[in-house]
Amino acid sequence: MAENQIEKANAILDRAQMASAEFNQYNQEQTDKVVEAVFKASFNNRVRLAKMACEETGMGVWEHKVIKNVLASQMVYESIRNEKTVGVISYDPLTGISEIAQPLGPILAVIPVTNPTSTTIFKILICLKSRNPIIISAHRGAAKSCTETVRICYEAALEAGAPEDCIQMISAGSREFTHIVMAHSKVALILATGGTGLVNAAYSSGNPAIGVGPGNVPVFIDESADIPFAVSNIITSKTFDNGTICASEQSIVVLDSMERKIIAEFEKQHCYFLNPEEIKKVERIAIVDETKSMSPFVVGQPVSVIAAKAGITVPEGTRILLAKLDGIGKNYPLSLEVLAPILAFYSARDYPSAVNMCIDLNYLGGIGHSACIYANDEIRIKEYAEMLNAGRVLVNTPTSQGAVGYFYNNLSPSLTLGCGTGGKNITTENITAKNLLNIQRVCRRKPNEMWFSCDQSKYFDESIGVDEIMNEYYKNH
């Protein structure tokens, strides 16, 4: 069986490498024609694919998945459309250095069950724009919708003149086979979006990887914030596709002096604060006790379903469940990431204590990912941003829509959010086509006047100190 899987992996990568060799010969016009065709085809199927994903996974809200598909197709296309990804992309006459874009080669893209069709569209577009063949590995819970997305994109790409096998998909459901492909010597890069175990497997594969793990996003509401505005934005974000974006808010941190007012505002906007007994019931169904990870049975589910599973009664129309907690860590399960309309709620005696809570939450399971502050005090915003280890610090912005870019800011629209070294990533950027290129630098002879105008013999005289050397160095330039 193992030998058959290795042979199967070899066949897939051989085809991908052939596609890579052909793709490497395409000019910018040919490349852009393929990308535009795939964008249009995926966009035209945005509603059908969203409904398929929602029905197959049983997660989220199909209308919200349509918006995700729009982001992944139209918004991503607009952001990369005019980007140079072929040949000379820059030249600096002062330094004599020109930069040439080169594709990486076959890329393995792992797709999460939470955002299957949108992530597939997104990764296909940025790979094709950078002339990299892509191999899709879908979560078994979203195999049908991902397969249809791949079919639509591949047929459009071929019709526009793309190389055969520029888009391939491996059979969903076999983690062992995905790991074999991950470790294959012909894989140039792994784009891994999903759970911690999967991302760690990508990093340990022996191939370069860009992985995105958990978020556990903390939100601080400062005294200077517009409270109704802040609460409304948080609800808009946390209920978006029932909280399935990893950048969705996980914990709210406020000051003691504001607690009563903020609780009242959440309740006014149809959110429900669980009592201690209800918190225990929700913890049992939201977090798997053995692994301290979120339960798949609550991911992307509405409040009504979560309440029924937990055996609690909440007012009809409740939008989010909030749990006021006294601590942070595995002994407080709802302080962990839960991709559902559930929020932890904390109150701190002062601003430094509140920031420390946010840092603790960030380090609990979302280091390097994202954080948020609602404030109208620029000093507080600056201090908060400097203290948090987060690739994206959102200000007065719903984090789900804010972190992925485009809607509320000028971040690159992306469904793969780099978490920097804190999250064991190479970058904190929103991943896009430019991150999938090798940049070749052609360096023309340009003698450095500072070096050649110095008396270099002085470097060999032990009696001459650094001050004399440096004074001459700067004097001659």
Tell me the radius of gyration: 25 Å
CATH class of the largest domain: Alpha Beta
Q: Could you estimate the helical fraction of the residues in percent?
A: 40-55%
Number of helices: 17
Distance between the termini: 69 Å
Could you state the CATH homologous superfamily of the largest domain? Aldehyde Dehydrogenase, Chain A, domain 1
Oligomer: single chain
Arithmetic mean pLDDT = 94
Uncertain ranges:
none
What's the story with the biggest beta sheet? 7 strands, parallel
CATH architecture of the largest domain: 3-Layer(aba) Sandwich
Q: How large a portion of the residues is in β-strands, by DSSP E?
A: 15-25%
Annotated CATH topology of the largest domain: Aldehyde Dehydrogenase, Chain A, domain 1
How many domain units?
2
Going across the biggest sheet, name each strand in turn: 10-13-14-9-8-15-16
Which overall shape is indicated by the principal axes computed on the Cα atoms? globular
- What structural category do the secondary elements indicate? alpha/beta
- Total number of beta strands: 17
Care to describe what's here?
It is built from 17 helices and 17 strands. The chain has a 7-stranded parallel sheet with strand order 10-13-14-9-8-15-16, sandwiched between helices. A 5-stranded parallel sheet has the order 5-4-3-6-7, with helices on both faces. A 3-stranded antiparallel sheet has the order 1-2-17, with no helix packed on it. It has 477 residues and is α/β, with parallel strands linked by helices. The protein has 2 domains: 2-213 and 432-438, Aldehyde Dehydrogenase, Chain A, domain 1, CATH 3.40.605; 217-412, Aldehyde Dehydrogenase, Chain A, domain 2, CATH 3.40.309.10. Helices cover 43% and strands 18% of the residues. The longest helix is centred in the N-terminal third of the chain and has 22 residues, at 2-23. The chain has helices at residues 2-23, 28-44, 46-57, 62-80, 116-129, 143-159, 175-182, 196-203, 227-238, 256-268, 276-286, 303-310, 351-365, 378-387, 399-403, 449-452, 466-475, and strands spanning 87-92, 97-103, 107-111, 134-138, 167-170, 189-193, 209-212, 217-221, 249-255, 271-273, 287-288, 293-294, 320-324, 342-348, 368-374, 390-395, 437-443. The chain is globular and about 80 Å long.
